[in-house]
Amino acid sequence: MNLELLQVPEPAPPPDPFSDEHFVGYYHLSFLVENLQDTLQQLLNYLGTLQMPLPPRSQTIGDHQYLVAFLRDPDNLPIELLQISSTQ
Question: Is-above-0.85 flag for pTM?
Answer without folding.
Answer: no
